[in-house]
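Researcher: Good morning. I'm working through a list of sequences from a screen, and I'd like to move beyond sequence-only analysis. For each chain I'm collecting a predicted structure so we can compare shapes side by side. This is the next one on the list. No need for commentary yet; just the structure.
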Amino acid sequence: AVVSTQSGHYGRGFIAEQNMVGVSLGCGARNRTIPFCSTFATFFTRAMDQIRMAAVSQSQLNMAGSHCGVSIGEDGPSQMALEDIAAFRAIPNLVYFYPSDAVSACRAVELAANYKYMTFIRTSRPATTVIYANDEVFEIGKAKIVKTSAEDKVLVIGAGITLDSAMKAHSSLLEKGTSVRVMDPFTIKPLDKEAVLKHAKECGGRVITVEDHYAEGGIGEAVAGVLSNADFITKHKILAVREIPRSGPSAVLLDMFGISANKVVDAVLDMVE
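Model: Good morning. Structure tokens for this chain:
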């Protein structure tokens, strides 16, 4: 667990996440610094009382949670953050960033440093392909469409490692004669509601969300909340982790728990039949 400030000072919190968050809040009091604190995303759950009360106090605090989901592989379920999206979506005024490559991660840090209240940046362990140019502009609450055509049959929404799954599925589906649109939400809270509705409608109301997180409270349910207000008929399938996972190679676990590129391909083909 690490605390850093814009003055270049770093502090080790060790295995005391509650204290790490408290120290970070103290560093940021009265706008003295712009604090960032970082640990495995799952270990922030130990500090939820401090985080909740910081939100009540309208404090500024930036948190970076790494090693999310089953994609961390061999470290096993005790280290896998699979509840964090649900927990942090409920925090008032918090912006939840979910970057999918190095460029978007850098932009998330920049935007977080300039945000008035609290932020959380969810980062994955596996290497992902850099898909954005260094000068790509990102905004809070604005999604990116990374694959699109006039023939798209399904809108596939993924983030982090599952955006990588969606991109690979896009290529495989093209070989089978099916085109899908791929969305990177960038921020899960606030979610780009206008983009979700617009692109879902253009894809015939068919939407698949894929996430390295439990189904409850995750990206799928956030998108479902948006689609519930659509003025057109929608069909939505949520691909998410639905049981307590196990240790193993990252690629094997992604497939075992239903969020790999192959599983996205299967879901798309089932939906368009």
